[in-house]
Amino acid sequence: MSADDRDGILRRLSHRLRGRYLFKIAAAVIVVSTVLLGTGALAVDQVQASVESDARETMTSAAEREAEGINGFLSEMNGYTNRVSSASGVQSSSDGRIRDELRQNADMLPEYVVDVHYYNMVTNEVAVSTSPMTEGTTFSEEERPWAVGPAAFAHANEVRSFEPYKADGENHLGFVSPINNVPGKAIVITVDLSERGSLLTAPVDGGNMQVVSTATGQVALASNSDAILRDYFLIEELSHLRSDVTESTTTDVSNAEQTVVDGSDLATATAPVEGKSWAVVVAAPQRSVYGTVGDVTRTVLVLIGISIVGLLAVGAFVVRDVNGSVDDLRGYAEAIEAGDFDVEIDRERADEFGQLSALFDRIRETMREQIAAVEESADEAAAAREEAEALSAHLETKADEYEATIDAVAEGDLTRRLDPESESEAMTAIAESLNETLDRLEALVVAIQDAAETVDERSAEVTDSAAEVESTSVGVAESVEEISVGTERQEETLSTAAAELDDLSATVEEIASSTDELAERSAATAEAGEAGREEAGAAIERMDRIDDEVGRTVDEMRDLRDEVERIGEVVELIDDIAEQTNILALNASIEAARAGEAGEGFAVVAREVKDLAEETAEATTEVEELIAGVEGSTESVADGLFSMEDDVEAGREVVEETVGTLESIVEDVEDANAGIQSINDATDQQAESTQEAVSMIDEVAEVSVETASEAQNVSAAAEEQTAAIGQISTSAESLSTRADELRALADEFEAREAAAAESAVADAADAEDAEADLDGPSEAAAGTGFEFGPDATDADDDADTADDAEIDADTADDAEDEPAAGEPADYDAVEVDSDGDDAVETATANTDANADAAATDAGETAADGGVDDAETAAGDD
């Protein structure tokens, strides 16, 4: 048969099977029966393996338990033997004492203990024993395996048990332990193995359990005492018994010649006895061990047969019922397919086929309703298509208008606005939101321009103040230098006076002749000290003026730093607006995607809005970098001023100390002058007075040296102050340059409020000049539009009150445009309407609604005579 013929037969067979449900059921029954048979065979194999494993485990467990029992028996006898060998009585040299000790211990030992010997390991003689007949007897190892020499023990406390042996027709086992402190002597305890062997019972009927010595291959212990000391009957089959057994094993063997166990096929289990070369071996007929396997196999096969028969019966019943029901359902379906919706459907059954019949009935009714609905929807679709075409044309027109306006804004013309009138609520909402965004952006650009100008002016003021402070510091340095020179002259004078006093101490006559000259020199020294004190007082006054000037400069730098932080807040607001513009562009893109090809113009608008937002974000980033540089310069200038203020304070303290020193010098010189006059009046006491004068002059010289050193310190501090002021001037110039760069960036935008803002700035500058003439520089700084200092004038407060009144009025006007109750009012949000009618819904916060009005009111406030300009209006908003 060719391959094509075989394929044809298989296809026809498959077609027949798939064409009749009966054949499918029959095939399923055959498959399930086959699976059951295969599963049953596998289960039988597994059960057989499990039963055999359990049987082997039972034999192994029995052998291991018996091995543990024998090990306990041996350990117990080892303990008895070691206890007797350690007794003090057996260490005596008296045989009588030893005999009494042995008998006393024998009475306490188990009944299966036969004798206790006092054994001489050197002569192999039993010297003393509980059996009088054994005393004086010499044994060899062949007769008694325990008859060993001292070399058989590694240490004195060791206990050994040996292989069984025959004695007087009984099977005995000996335990030997050397006696402590008595070399060559040992205690031997012999036991009868009959009682212990009777405890060996096989776990399987017809089985056998024996203990085999792996050293000799003979039976060491068995329930049948005749088998002891004979070769184990399966020693040839179980070759592992010829060496030490280390783990439990099971083995199936065959020996037709043995007569110990019925049958030739045997199952064996071996378990080692710990600490001795023995092994417990269990042997039993395989038919007894694995006899339950056949019973389990028959039970499993019967269960499989019952399952197959039951499956065939259930299949036949199901086929008969299902075939009839399927034929009825097929008739219903064919009638409905042919358009016969009046066919009678039987719904009396409550099972799944009854549910299918009810489903066919519902399908018939649903099809009737859908046909009617389709006819009605065709008319509505035609009308909707016409409306969609009209709306698409309108959207394209509005998109072109929006594109032109957004292009102009992108080029820097912030005066352009979108026309919100549209047939689409989404387009109207987008136009209103973009117009509001442009209003806020325009006001912020104007505020940035004005803030940049204010920063430039404040930088100039800082530069001028720094120059004045620098000039004053130079004056202080010169004065201190003069003090230092005067102090040096004074020191020279004092040195000369000290030398003269030394000469005067030589003779009273020379003292008298030199008294007048010394008085003149002392007077000159007093005058020089007084002059130094006056110069130091002048220096203190100059240091006070420097301190006041530095304090004013520090206050101005604080105001300037606050203004720079305010500009940063404005830039962050611009960044937020760019983010909102991006959200508008995203919603516009969504609307364009929903409109399909008709929304291409709308998509252009979205792209333009997105481009504008990106350009705004880039400009904002550049402005933020400039502001960061300005802030860095401001912080550097502020740190320099703070350091200079500390240096000025330290310099003033040094000068004050110098004044105190000079006053002390003057007082000392006056005292010296009085002493000289006393010398002139009382030449009798000239020697003592001259010595006192020398001491006083030395002290004055030391004070002069300290004065010169302090003057030099003051001079150095003044020079450091001059250098710090130069650094402040440089930082202020850098700040002015960055302010110019910021203003240049802001000037790239054209705003409707530009002219009004410039006029307001001019008026505010005039007001600042007037206030500066009356109230000083702090009030002039407060009139720039940013009220940072605490010295703002009442005129500023009145102007702010007027501005606030106008802003509140504008807020009341704009309240009419706020969202209805229940809509979001605290933030800007753009949402896509789920029903598709309104593509975009925009909710604008009340706090942002007055941006345009507040920016416009700025010009009006300045025109009415207030001192606040457009910056104040934008900042308040």
Automatic annotation (TrEMBL):
Keywords, alphabetical: Coiled coil, Membrane, Transducer, Transmembrane, Transmembrane helix
Region Disordered, residue ranges: 515-538, 757-877
One Gene Ontology biological process: signal transduction
Pfam families for the chain: HAMP, MCPsignal
Coiled-coil annotated spans: 364-458
PROSITE patterns per the UniProt record, alphabetical: CHEMOTAXIS_TRANSDUC_2 (PS50111), HAMP (PS50885)
Domain Methyl-accepting transducer: 465-701
Low complexity biased stretches: 841-865
UniProt xrefs under InterPro entries: HAMP_dom, MCPsignal_dom
Residue intervals of the HAMP domain: 320-372, 404-446
CDD domains: HAMP (cd06225), MCP_signal (cd11386)
Keyword Hydrolase attached: no
Gene3D superfamilies xrefs: 6.10.250.1910, Methyl-accepting chemotaxis protein (1.10.287.950)
Cellular compartments per GO CC: membrane
Keyword Coiled coil among record annotations: yes
Transmembrane segments: 21-44
Family from the record: Belongs to the methyl-accepting chemotaxis (MCP) protein family.
Protein name per the record: Methyl-accepting chemotaxis sensory transducer
